[in-house]
């Protein structure tokens, strides 16, 4: 039986689909890939997907012929269930975070009419404040993602949500244009890490072929937040005079406090990733599902040689990833020459105007 299994893996034809990497046994690997950690991860994945059957793999379909080697089996059922749980827990939470982000940054558009009357701010002040917001927002994108990796997802999102909530609430005390400019700079810097951090966090839990749908939902959260911002701001403006605050002050305060409240709850809601050992935020997964996600992430991020089934033949270590092209500058200039990108950018600029 062992000889038959070995011959089916080393020959160019397979009976049925090729197994998912998590369902391979250490004996099926070529010598360069047989590290202790790889063996333990593979044994764990195979054991979990087979329902505790001692690591035995599922038998090929009796009706399949010998030409089925071009197909690749999907992930184990237990791993699929873990993917679904991670999606159900993280994507709605990030949609709420993104929604709060956009509501806080656009609140000045609804408060501006009363601010103009009370503070004497003209269009030039609001236009300059908008430009300063996006200046710090763009400048902090890469540093923010580096800090997210260094500090961890939970601490980073707690920090930036508290920061942008405090900055948005501080607008209630604005009296001069320089104060307004300074707070717009701070708000842009604080909110810069939201989208890069969300993408990084989701990539820790889901493989690349499963992140497009969550990213689309985060984009939908932006549209939903814009639809909700107007009636919410109108309600807050109607509180004009309550507790000695003007309506525009209620807009900033009422839209900042939910962000700060959610930030305080994030340590119980948002885990750092499947690599997290113990702590809060992981109760939505069983220990077995967590181990499977850790094994899957380790296989996806392992340096070459990786344990990947080739297009034909037996299992072999994957080749090292290709080096970046020498003409990186030429590639960048070629990308910047794509007119569709500039058209999309122009549409976004006109929409914002």
Rounded radius of gyration (Å): 26 Å
Q: What is the ordering of alpha helices and beta strands?
A: HHHHHHHHHHHEEHH
General shape: globular
Mean pLDDT score, rounded? Answer: 77
Q: Distance between the terminal alpha carbons, to the nearest Å?
A: 70 Å
Largest sheet, spatial ordering of strands: 1-2
Structural class: mainly alpha
Alpha plus pi helix count: 13
Binned strand content: under 5%
Largest sheet, described in full?
A: 2 strands, antiparallel
CATH architecture descriptor name of the largest domain: Up-down Bundle
What are the SSEs and their pairings?
Blueprint: H1 2-10, H2 36-49, H3 77-119, H4 123-139, H5 141-151, H6 153-170, H7 177-191, H8 194-205, H9 212-237, H10 247-269, H11 287-301, E1 307-308, E2 316-317, H12 328-336, H13 339-352
Antiparallel strand pairs: 1-2
Describe the fold and architecture:
The chain is mainly alpha-helical. It has two domains: 1-74 and 286-320, no CATH class; 80-269, Up-down Bundle (Growth Hormone, Chain: A), CATH 1.20.1250.20. 64% of the residues lie in helices and 1% in strands. The protein is built from 13 helices and two strands, in the order H-H-H-H-H-H-H-H-H-H-H-E-E-H-H. A two-stranded antiparallel sheet has the order 1-2. It is globular, with a radius of gyration of 26 Å.
């Amino acid at each position: 039986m062992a000889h038959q299994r070995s011959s089916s893996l080393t020959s160019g034809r397979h009976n049925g689909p090729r197994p998912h990497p998590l369902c391979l046994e250490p004996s099926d690997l070529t010598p360069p890939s047989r590290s202790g950690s790889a063996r333990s991860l593979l044994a764990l994945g195979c054991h979990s997907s087979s329902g505790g059957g001692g690591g035995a793999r599922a038998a090929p379909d009796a009706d399949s012929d010998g030409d089925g080697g071009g197909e690749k089996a999907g992930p184990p059922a237990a791993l699929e269930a873990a993917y679904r749980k991670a999606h159900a827990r993280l994507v709605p939470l990030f949609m709420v975070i993104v929604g709060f982000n956009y509501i806080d940054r656009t609140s000045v558009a609804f408060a501006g009419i009363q601010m103009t009357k009370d503070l004497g701010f003209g269009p030039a002040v609001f236009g300059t404040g908008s430009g300063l917001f996006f200046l710090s927002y763009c400048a902090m994108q890469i540093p923010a993602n580096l800090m997210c990796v260094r500090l961890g997802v939970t601490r980073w999102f707690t920090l930036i949500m508290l920061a942008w909530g405090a900055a948005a609430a501080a607008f209630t005390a604005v009296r001069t244009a320089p104060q307004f400019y300074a707070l717009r700079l701070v708000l842009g810097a604080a909110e810069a890490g939201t989208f890069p951090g969300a993408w990084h966090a989701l990539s820790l839990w889901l493989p690349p072929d499963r992140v497009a749908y969550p990213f689309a939902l985060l984009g939908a959260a932006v549209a939903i937040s814009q639809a909700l911002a107007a009636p919410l701001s109108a309600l807050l403006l109607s509180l004009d005079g309550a507790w000695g605050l003007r309506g525009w002050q209620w807009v900033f305060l009422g839209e900042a406090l939910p962000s700060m409240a959610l930030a305080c709850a994030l340590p119980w809601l948002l885990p750092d990733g499947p690599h997290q050992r113990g702590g809060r935020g992981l109760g939505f997964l069983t220990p077995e599902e967590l181990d499977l996600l850790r094994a899957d992430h380790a296989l996806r991020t392992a340096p070459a040689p990786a344990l990947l089934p080739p297009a034909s033949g037996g299992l072999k270590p994957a080749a090292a990833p290709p080096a970046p092209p020498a003409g990186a500058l030429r590639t960048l200039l070629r990308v910047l020459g794509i007119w569709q990108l500039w058209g999309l950018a122009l549409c976004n600029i006109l929409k914002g105007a």
